[in-house]
Amino acid sequence: MMVIEVEDLRKSYGHNRAVDGVSFAVAKGETFGLLGHNGAGKTTTVECLIGLRRPDSGAVRVLGADPARHRRRLARRVGVQLQESELPDRLKVAEAMSLFAAFHDDPDDWREVLRRWGLGLIWNKAYGDLSGGQKQRLKLALALVGRPELVVLDELTTGLDPVARRETWTLIGDLKASGTTALVVSHFMDEAEELCDRVAVLSRGRVIALGTPRELVAGTGAGSLAEAYLALMGAGR
Known about the structure:
The structure is a single chain. By secondary structure, this protein is α/β, with parallel strands linked by helices. The protein folds into two domains: 1-77 and 166-237, P-loop containing nucleotide triphosphate hydrolases (Rossmann fold); 84-148, no CATH class. It is built from nine helices and nine strands. It has a six-stranded mixed sheet with strand order 5-6-7-3-8-9, with helices on both faces. Strands 2-1-4 form a three-stranded antiparallel sheet, covered by helices on one side. α8 (213-220) packs across α9 (225-235). The longest helix is centred in the last third of the chain and has 16 residues, at 162-177. It is globular, with a radius of gyration of 18 Å. The chain starts with a strand and ends with a helix. The mean pLDDT is 91. GO terms for molecular function: ATP binding; ATP hydrolysis activity. One of its GO terms (biological process) is response to antibiotic. Its main location: membrane. It is a peripheral membrane protein. Residues 4-229 form the ABC transporter domain.
């Protein structure tokens, strides 16, 4: 079963074509990476996938439904962590988790989710008083409290220190082991190489490479995904 199906997706803003014929599919249980520099089309693609943007043309299906038409229905089955999302400064961690859990019919125990993500000791702290790393972890916890079938993670380790990044990778690995499908949007090649079964590299709104990290490394003759990415970017200019 394909959890995500994107075919010839196109989206423009005025004369700027942000997404120009993107196609890929993500299988159930797969961790799939969308890689690319700022302005490559990653964010617009994700916004079309979660129903925040309506494509100009092409087809998008998530869990068998059109996100533009069935956004509310999918919201109960898809967890989303967006890099630019924010919460009210005075909202406490426990209040946020309890609220988000209430949106779902069969949520996880939000107290256990906080503990799992290293936030159990700050449950009574206000969002505005959290560090950047704590805010990022809270956003991840909020995305996962509803036991989603698909989770979309946008730059999930931005703002985390190296130790916290590694701990987050371990938790995402545990998420994968549970059978949850994940779409990981990142510009960290080491992260994508560690977490992703397959990746799509975007440049100027188009997919310029698609495959496993090992396939991309082998195809470019590189020694790592970071080197393969640089080679692909150079060839795509």
